[in-house]
Amino acid sequence: MYKIFDTHAHYDDEAFDEDREELLKDLKVSGVCGILNCGSSLEGARTSFKLANEKEFIYAAVGIHPEQANELTDSVLEEIKEMAKNEKVKAIGEIGLDYYWDENPPKEVQIEVFRKQMSLAKDLKLPVVIHDRDAHADTLTILKEFPEVTGVIHCFSGSLEFAKECIKLGYYIGFTGVVTFKNAKKLVEVAKNIPLERMLVETDCPYMAPEPNRGKRNQSSNIEYIINKLAEIRNMTGEEINNQFLKNAEKFLSINIK
């Protein structure tokens, strides 16, 4: 049984409303030693903040997801800033750009909101959790505008070249259950060729469940399948590679994993 740190989860999601407390207790028993719960709306940020302050092994990231970019008023930004001063809040996120859905806010709105939250992370000296979907070029441009800020490219979906550019800027690359899918050839190439010191494992639960649980509600204990797949790709044992992932999570979030 691995000691698991999930660097991206959404236990504030309604998918967990019926059994959240019970599930979180079970996760601790099954080896999950830590979780970064990431807000993706103001309500999600508030719930993540609450969870982190109630559960010793949960930390929070607070921010507005690009799909909710219209939410970011001055007062919302101020509320996020106040939450981020709490010792259990370890990152600003999930923030970034999402050009996949036509119904998302316009690109210029997303970009403005992204920049405002990157600026907040810079001011507070916190890392960021970046959402980047079909927006690699604009994402990279904005990351370069804030060289003082680092973080993770969550649920990485770009090329090896893009990964290397992000790593040059000090970012980690986040691997979800997608790396276990049969059609994940591009992601496997990334996993094989970037430094181990720049890799993190995450669920994005309740989404992105790995094989053999694809399509089901995801949870942090499923990271064992991601660890096993990445160990296979790198020709290492699961224990060896996971020890590095734990060290990376500690450095990313400036915490000591117990």
Describe this structure in words.
- By secondary structure, the chain is an alpha/beta fold.
- The chain has one domain: Metal-dependent hydrolases (TIM Barrel).
- It is built from nine helices and eight strands.
- Strand 2, helix 2 and strand 3 form a beta-alpha-beta unit.
- It starts with a strand and ends in a 5-residue tail after the last helix.
Strands, helices and their partners?
Elements: E1 4-9, H1 20-29, E2 32-38, H2 42-54, E3 58-62, H3 74-84, E4 89-98, H4 107-124, E5 128-133, H5 136-145, E6 151-153, H6 160-168, E7 172-175, H7 185-193, E8 199-201, H8 223-234, H9 238-253
Helix pairs in contact: 8-9
Radius of gyration: 17 Å
Low-confidence stretches: none
Global outline: globular
Q: What kind of sheet is the major sheet?
A: 8 strands, parallel
Mean pLDDT across the residues is 97
Number of helices: 9
Give the strand order of the largest sheet, numbering strands 1, 2, ... along the chain. Answer: 1-2-3-4-5-6-7-8
Number of domains: 1
The total strand number stands at 8
CATH class: Alpha Beta
CATH topology: TIM Barrel
Based on secondary structure, the structural category is alpha/beta
Strand content: 15-25%
The CATH superfamily turns out to be Metal-dependent hydrolases
* Distance N to C terminus: 15 Å
- CATH architectural name: Alpha-Beta Barrel
List the helices and strands in order. EHEHEHEHEHEHEHEHH
Helix content: 40-55%
